[in-house]
């Protein structure tokens, strides 16, 4: 009986752990999709913010390096109306810009 209870607990913990990983991955993919949509529509400031937010929210996510690189490139992009080379070169891209108004003068209209 103890062995069965132990196996049931172990399986329950395993399922709970896997669902947390899946939720994190799904969240990062959703954040990255918002960033891609903003970038495709020409909203470079919004895209930079969304990529930076993805990197900040999911530092151990599978797409962290992509998000951080894209944020840095877009923050430094010459066509970005909120271009900010200081943020682009910062070790944690976007760390100092925690709200949309901080990183691009309130031009961001998406969530984040």
Please outline the helices and strands.
Layout: H1 2-40, H2 44-57, H3 64-76, H4 85-89, H5 100-104
Helix pairs in contact: 1-2, 2-3
Task: Describe the overall structure.
This protein has 112 residues and is an all-alpha fold. The chain has one domain. Helix content is 68%, strand content 0%. The protein contains five helices and no strands. Helix 2 (44-57) packs antiparallel against helix 3 (64-76). The longest helix has 39 residues, at 2-40. The N and C termini lie far apart (49 Å). Residues 95-112 have low confidence and may be disordered.
Short structural description:
This protein has 5 helices and no strands.
Overall geometry comes to elongated
What proportion of the residues form beta strands (DSSP E)?
A: under 5%
Structural domain tally: 1
Unreliable stretches (pLDDT < 50, length at least 5) are 95-112
String of helices and strands: HHHHH
Straight-line N-to-C gap:
49 Å
Rg on CA atoms, Å? 18 Å
Helix content: 55-70%
**Total count of helical runs of at least 4 residues:** 5
Count of distinct strands: 0
Briefly note the structural class of the backbone.
mainly alpha
Query: Major β-sheet, in short?
Result: none
Mean pLDDT: 74
């Amino acid at each position: 009986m103890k062995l069965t209870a132990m196996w049931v607990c172990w399986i329950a913990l395993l399922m709970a752990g896997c669902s947390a990983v899946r939720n994190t991955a799904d969240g990062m993919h959703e954040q990255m999709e918002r960033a891609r949509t903003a970038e495709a529509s020409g909203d470079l400031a919004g895209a930079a913010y969304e990529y930076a937010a993805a990197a900040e929210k999911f530092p151990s996510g599978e797409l962290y390096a992509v998000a951080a690189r894209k944020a840095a490139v877009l923050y430094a992009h010459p066509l970005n109306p909120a271009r900010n080379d200081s943020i682009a070169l910062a070790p944690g891209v976007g760390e100092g810009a925690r709200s949309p108004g901080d990183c691009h003068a309130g031009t961001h209209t998406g969530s984040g």
